Amino acid sequence: MAEQIPPVNPYRPDADDSELKLVPFAGRQKAFERLYQRLTDPIRAEATILLGQQGVGKTALLRHFHTFFDETFVSVCVPLRQMPLTDEDAWLKALAQRITSALVMRNFTLARLPQEAPDGSAARAWFEESYLLEVFNIIRRHRRLALLLDDADLLLRAADEGRLPADSFDYLYRLLTDYRQLGIVLTLDARFESEVVRLSPLAMVTGVFRLTNLTPDESAWLLREPVRAFYSLSDEAVAAIYRATGGQPRLLQRFGDALFRHWAAQPEQTALGTEQAKTLLPQVYAASEHEFRQMWMEMNQTERLVLTAVAGRLFEDPLAPINAAAIAAWLVETDYPLDMTAINAAIRSLEYREVFTGSPLQIGAGLLQTWLLDNARLSPPANNASAARPTSDAQRLNRRVAALAIVALAALILALMIALAGTNTPESGLAPPTVTLAVTNTP
């Protein structure tokens, strides 16, 4: 009897660029519709920018472009991190190679495609007048060539450092206007959102589409559909995982991976529920800590103060409504006061990045809330008067931490009971016990 092949885990939370097309992909219908509208616009000749936080799935969307668009679109994924952006000659030759590879994958006849431009020749003239012109003859008039450029900030850096010409974006825009069969899609990390204007005229602010976390329905599909043949996941477990991840795609992939591994170790267990989700949560949390730390380090001091205040308030009383006034009151007690203008500005920024959700405020991902309680540390206040009283501040903070420790067990049990009841309250019930929330005074 032939040996039975074990089921393949479909989830790859840390997949590299080449593997992303194999990873389960959920949602993004509106993003694809927007891309289709822009790429087929007979008048507008501008690139579209897909903007989003790290881990939200920008690269994955490019890798799944072909699942939405039909054969009249020839897509070319261009991971700029793997491209030689040392000079324009190397850049355009490498871009041509990517296009050629895409044509080979689509079984186009390439006999007439011109050879690579000789060294020392005008790279732009060869790419535009010889290479691209023949590419469009090969794919015929009814098809479009879509260049999907991932991590557009690398093009900005290359232009800033003189490795690419300063007019590189003007040149790419001219290609769009000269060849209406050509379309360009760029991805950009949200950290570089302020630099969108520098991509002009290739891309404009009006051409930005922001990718957000997945909805509850999209998250449920991602957790269930790829493994439907192996096991089922209860509604309560799906809801609990969504509360823990906030719909963040990479965190959902980690949960899917952990659930599959759990099932593979006990394949007779074909119905998984909340108990399994709770058991696996510490594993997912440990694998995600470095990302939460990076997020924390990229925040400014005001955002850290506000986020720590919200985490502290939720820890003390998971059912208490949180708003700007409640944050201000919490910070006063820690001698880190902020005025309402600063607090509201930080709230808007954190809401935009989906760290906060809802009104009253909640932390979108329960895993992040756990990390904050375990790790959030604030530098000393900028206020000289406060900084001059380190002993007093430390005493107050120690008392506050002690108070949090006293109520930790009761709050955790209450939150867990609420989570298991399927309510929409904070997801602290899924988090491992933690009592650490401190503001440290560093030299």
Structural account:
- The chain has 443 residues and is α/β, with parallel strands linked by helices.
- The chain folds into three domains: 28-210, 3-Layer(aba) Sandwich (Rossmann fold); 216-288, Helicase, Ruva Protein, domain 3 (Orthogonal Bundle); 299-430, no CATH class.
- The protein is built from 17 helices and nine strands.
- It has helices at residues 29-39, 58-63, 65-68, 88-105, 123-139, 153-160, 168-178, 216-224, 235-245, 249-265, 274-298, 301-316, 324-333, 340-352, 366-375, 384-387, 390-420; strands at residues 47-52, 73-79, 144-150, 182-189, 203-210, 232-233, 271-272, 356-357, 362-363.
- The strands form three sheets. Strands 2-3-4-1-5 form a five-stranded parallel beta sheet, sandwiched between helices.
- Strand 8 and strand 9 (362-363) form a beta hairpin.
- Helix 10 runs antiparallel to helix 11 and helix 11 crosses helix 15.
- The longest helix is centred in the last third of the chain and has 31 residues, at 390-420.
